Amino acid sequence: MEANPLILTLTLNQEAFDFFTQLRTEYFPPERNYLQAHLTLFHHLPPSENSVLDTLTEICKHQKAMDLEVSDLMSLGNGVAFKIDSQELFELYKHLQSQWEPFLIPQDKQKLRPHITIQNKVKPEVAKETEKEVRQTFNPFRIIGTGFTLWEYMGGPWKLYHQFTFLSE
After folding, report:
1. Can you tell me whether residue 70 is helix, strand or coil?
2. pTM for this model (two decimals)
3. Enclosing H/E stretch for 75
């Protein structure tokens, strides 16, 4: 039996994590909200591939915490997310893609569209109302990426697999 795939997310500073998780709690359908706030980088990495852990460990020895701009809201059709902008994140993602290209699934070979989902799997009219409501008080702001988190995909919920912290100051 093959092991469950791994999901790689960017770890957020605690204040941002708490903020987005609270919004998920408020807007995500409760029966489908079994995850906390996250910014997914890769959706399906093989746990048997040692280069995943090795590459992330090496990057974290040199990577400083990175500023990310929460620049806008974005419609997901059946949900709402916050759009994230960071040239540094885009460059890091491209580097990881080049390292892992032989075993990436098609979805993970695409251009990164970083976002943090606060609502999904609702009717489009509900999503539009949520976006309208959240937009009333939205102003762009900054958050911080502090490391990577690898998760084991459990067919719905995720299980913590390994955390990596950006070490360099």
Report:
1. strand
2. 0.94
3. strand 66-75
